[in-house]
Structure formats: C-alpha cells, structure tokens
Amino acid sequence: MVRQIKLDQIDDLMEEAVQKLVKKTTLQWTTLSKKSTPVVSGNLRNGWKTDIQKLQGRIINTVEYAEPVIYGTSLPDSWNGKFRTKQQTIKGFPELQAKQLTTGYIPKELKRIIRSK
C-alpha cells in the first residue's frame, strides 16, 4: 500500500527521519569504536563519549593517550616512532568505521526509518 503524504508535510517527515538516522548512526559508531579500542585497564575504551544534537552526532575520546593508540599520531618517545599496541589495533579505525557506516549501515537504516513512518 502506498502511503500518501501532503506536500507540506515532507520537510517535517524528512527532518525527523534524518534526526533519527543521526542518533542511530552516532550510537552505532560509538559501539563499534568501543569494541575496536584495545583494552589494558579499560580507561581508553570507557573514554568514548557521544554527543548527539538535532542534525549532528560526534564521538570523542579525551583520554590523554587516545590519539597515539587510536590514530597512530603523536606517538610517545617510548614507542621509538613505531605504532604498536598489544592487541594489534588498526590505526585510524574510527575513519574506517565511518566509511563502513556510510556505505552500508546508513543507507539501510534510512530506508528502514522511512518505511516505518
């Protein structure tokens, strides 16, 4: 059955759909990042924070050593210029996850959200 929407309702419907998509995607990305974060004490994994606003979502990690472990940049001197973690972490994994979310999760989830309206 085809759903009928009045022309003046499209903008509200799409804004609501995008807000849900932003929220779901941000939460999914946070979950993926936590799972991919190497664990020694749990501090780095627990450092992930989610900031969701109407049309924007962010995940951040402000733990002091997050940058070298997650991105492989600003390496401490003790690493002798080489990226290494005990769990063989892939440096820059949040960007890789963003690409996966963009090509797979987001289109499917948007269809699901729109169909549920």
Helix content: 40-55%
Question: What portion of residues belong to β-strands?
Answer: 5-15%
Radius of gyration: 19 Å
Given the structure, what is the number of helices? 4
N-to-C order of helices and strands: HHEEHH
Q: What is the mean pLDDT? A: 89
Number of strands: 2
| Largest sheet properties | 2 strands, antiparallel
Poorly predicted runs are none
Strand order, largest beta sheet: 1-2
- What best-fitting shape do the alpha-carbon axes yield? elongated
Distance between the termini: 13 Å
Structural class: mainly alpha
Overview of the structural elements:
The protein has a domain at 47-117. The chain has helices spanning 10-36, 43-46, 66-71, 93-115; strands at residues 48-52, 57-61. β1 (48-52) and β2 form a beta hairpin. The radius of gyration is 19 Å and the shape is elongated. A two-stranded antiparallel ribbon has the order 1-2. The chain contains four helices and two strands; from the N terminus they run ααββαα. The protein has 117 residues and is mainly alpha-helical. The two termini are 13 Å apart. The longest helix has 27 residues, at 10-36.
Helix and strand arrangement:
Layout: H1 10-36, H2 43-46, E1 48-52, E2 57-61, H3 66-71, H4 93-115
Antiparallel strand pairs: 1-2
Helix pairs in contact: 1-4
